[in-house]
Amino acid sequence: PSLPQVIYMKFTAQMQHTKESIHQLSKVQYHAFRFGVRMFWSGCGIACIWAAVNAEDQFLFYILMFAGIWLLLNLELPAKHRADKIIKAGNGELPHTQYCFEEEEIRISSKDYKKSISYQQLYALLEDKSYYYLFVNRNAGFVVDKKRISPENVDGLKALVQMKSGLKFRKPVPLWGIVPSFSGKAGNKLGKS
To answer: DSSP code of 120?
Structure first.
């Protein structure tokens, strides 16, 4: 079967980051690739609550219970901390990135950054309602604003990137997701299908 004509269109996109978009990228990355950290925080929180329930001293009960509840309520703190560091490093200037999706590569440029990557270099693809997330490894990725794609063909760009990379776009893993980690090109769980 022949592929739709739109697959071979040249697409461009822009992303003007906001504090919210950087926090969202960090959160998506954390949920997708930091299963061990999430489980460690959860385990520590549960252990503190268990120890509190079994504590004979009332003061110790309150300290352990507070610590356990705090850990469980702040599971996303590492993602927030990472995003805050990125925002602070920009000294108030948030990146504006331009993308050009060519037939064999993606050209990426911003004020102080220019790079071309082949679609085969992509490690994992995620999407939510507003953005596409193109990860080149577990620690680095790019965000494409779906509203700033030209021509306005979100599905066409999605099809192009999937076809050229051999990966499929997936929804971000929820905070309490059972998926052990986002395997990307290392396996078939959420990366290559």
So the answer is: G
Look up residue 134 and give its two tokens: 């193109």
pTM score: 0.79
101, β-bridge pairs:
11, 106
Q: Is the link from the previous residue into 151 a cis peptide, with omega within 30 of 0? A: yes
Q: Distances from the Cα of 12 to the Cαs of 7, 15, 36, 103, 177, in angstroms? A: 13, 10, 36, 12, 33
What does the block give as tokens for 122?
């992509």
Given this model, what pLDDT does residue 113 score? 83
The CA distance from 135 to 156, in Å, is 19
pLDDT digit string (tens) for 138-180?
888 899 999 999 887 888 899 999 999 999 999 876 655 544 4
Closest CA to 30 of 89, 80, 85: 80
Work out the number of other CB atoms within 10 angstroms of the CB of residue 16: 11
Cβ–Cβ < 8 Å for 143, 20: no
Strand partners, 192: 167
Distance (Å, whole) CA 96 – CA 158: 21
